[in-house]
Amino acid sequence: MIELKCVWKRYKKGTFFSKDFVEVLKCVSLNVRKGEHVGIIGESGAGKSTLSRIITLLELPDRGEVFLDNEKITKKNVKTKRGEVGMVFQDPSTSLDPKMTILSTLKEASKDREEIEAVFGKVGLKKVLLEKYPHELSGGEQQRVAIARVLLAKSRYVVFDEFTSALDVSTQARIVNLLCDINKNRDYGFIFVSHDVKLVNFLSDRIYVLYKGEIVEETDDLKDAIHPYTRMLLSGEVVETEDKRSEGCGFYAACPYRFERCKREKPDIKMIGKNKGVRCFLYD
Ligand SMILES: Nc1ncnc2c1ncn2[C@@H]1O[C@H](COP(=O)(O)OP(=O)(O)O)[C@@H](O)[C@H]1O
Ligand SMILES: [Mg+2]
Question: For residue range 141-179, what is the model confidence (pLDDT) as tens digits?
Fold first, then answer.
């Protein structure tokens, strides 16, 4: 199981010498069990990719804890644990080395030629493509190579960050079917990170909704979503609102249901059912 406990991450705004920080993740807690399909949705800028880098152990949080199978991830052990959580990126053309053949790229994950060919077949690619360079492949084929690479690396968990955004609709559908097929025995924990709510809802057993660096809702089906932000996101109505206050609910300025308490107090995420949590005083 992967577990994040109140993870914080901030980045410097502007230049290196700047003392101005932006909190990108604010006490994010989540877990992904073995073989589970978990979705993370939110608008662009919500902090999804930052969260992806922490889940895949590419970065450590500033505060809070990350556990992999109950073992705490530290500066010391992070490098040895990294391979256990793989990542498939949005743009496959930038995640593959243009100067290396597909075979050489995959050999970095496994030396076993037979195994490479077996996995290559599993992701629906013909052997002749092994000798080619990334630019000779279509976007869909490149993304299949990226998937083959994480499977060969024997990652037990894979984060897919906007993995279909660069692909056309029919290629998207084929890749989605491929992923369902690969994990039909639930050998892997899959984490789908995207602004595409329909796609994530289709693929996931459970979904976290991220709004400006905070989890505002957890649900096993978006059609049962109750947080005002999630409802607005689903209906496509979300409007960006400038809000510099640090107190109160993070969604206060844009919320159609806000009341006095929301201005002063910050709601905690409250579990109101199995796999059902919401950060909103309407449900307090
Ligand atoms: N390495 C970084 N340095 C500075 N700011 C960053 C860095 N990575 C992300 N950010 C900022 O963090 C915020 C969230 O970014 P990101 O995690 O990419 O969101 P998302 O993937 O949801 O669009 C953005 O405002 C972005 O500019
Ligand atoms: Mg992103």
Answer: 999 999 999 999 989 999 999 988 888 888 888 889 999
Distance of CA 170 to the CA centre of its chain: 22
Count Cβ atoms below 10 Å from residue 268 Cβ, excluding itself: 10
How far is Cα 228 from Cα 281, in angstroms, rounded to an integer?
11
With a CB cutoff of 8 Å and minimum separation 6, the contacts of 179 are 147, 160, 190, 203
Which CATH architecture group holds 2-204? 3-Layer(aba) Sandwich (3.40)
Nearest residue (by CA) to ligand 1, atom 3, is 11
| HEC sequence for 220-240 | CCHHHCCCHHHHHHHHCCCCC
- 213 C-alpha to ligand 1 centroid (Å): 10
Nearest ligand 1 atom, CA 42: 22
Q: Whose CA is nearest to atom 4 of ligand 1?
A: 11
Query: For residue 112, how far is its CA from the centre of ligand 1 (angstroms)?
Result: 38
Largest pairwise CA distance in the chain: 65
Q: How many residues does the chain have?
A: 284
Phi, psi angle pair for 111, to nearest 5°: -85, -15
How remote is the CA of residue 128 from the centroid of ligand 2, in Å? 33
Q: How confident is the model at residue 111 (pLDDT cuts 50, 70, 90)?
A: very high
Would you say 231 and 216 are in contact if contact means Cβ atoms under 8 Å apart? no
Q: What is the pTM of this model?
A: 0.94
Q: Can you give the pLDDT at residue 169?
A: 86
